[in-house]
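Per-residue structure
===
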Amino acid sequence: MSDHHGAPGSAHSVAGPGTHSLAEILSQPHCWSNCLKELEQKGFLEKILEPFREATEWLFVGCGSSYYIALAAAASWSMITGLRARAVPASELLLFPNSVLGGEGELAAVVISRSGRTSEALRAAEMLEGERDIRTLAVTCTGDQPLEQISTSTLALLPADEESTVMTRSFTSMLLGLQCLAACVADDHGLAKGLRKLPSSAEKVLQVLHRDVREFVGARQFADYVCLGQGPFYGLACESALKITEMSVSYAQSFHTLEFRHGPKSIVSPETLVLFLLSEAGYEAECEVLQEIKSLGGTTLVVANRADERARASADLLIEFGFELPELARLAAYVFAGQLAGLCTGLKKGLDPDNPRHLSRVVVLDEA
């Protein structure tokens, strides 16, 4: 998506509905390779991190899809570095700063915006840098933009910029970039190696995944969509639900997997598509929820690195990666299913996923 909701887009796909979105989704492994080449230049990440070497706590800030990057990145950052990290929407920081910024540690902030021009992201960076004297790292996919001018340091992933309104490869590339930074902070060579291997591993599954999701969506009609994940997968579940909402003008919700039992499961029926992002760390408990939802008659789309017989028996569509990578190095690939489900559902409904109604690539508010 654009960093969050705004005015109607003005551009229209020339080559047919969803052309740009599909190309950008399928280009992700190649895009990651190009981004990683830049990140692997000697001293590149260290230079970006230099102003933050005293930080003991990290705050990740964004709007819409960029906030969901923040959720996944903050969870990853804590697990990789052992430092406290949390995510907030830019609006929460702007409206309730004292509830967000209380604490005694040396705080560093990361402000995420694909365009580098999102109004709330700019205001958040200005407030952090100017009013609170908190050093800020800008993460963006566009060069020489206002966010870069405001922030102390910038991670610009220029190969990941997009033509379509909806964020796809920019989402996964910025998440991957932040994971590389975390691996640098922690001096975690095993994770860094795993992140470098992810593009080639993902390339092998993406084309088949596109075919399977297209056939799955084409053969069914859904009234409700739910996306579930725990830990670092929760932000990916939120993003998956948002892709379905944006690209297909469908109402989709996201929950922590085990929280779905506590009330929301009342909506489950054969017309409810429940997308499970199964983690390795929480597999047993999450698989129990999957079995329960299947027993209630829900339709299930399951994404896992490796699935056992219980998951196979409870999945109407199973996407199994089989990557020989650390769990955190695999995160970016887990949003493929939601991206493709949104795209294919939108096309099935006769919509143009490149240009969803009421949305624009960048949300620039009227300062007057």
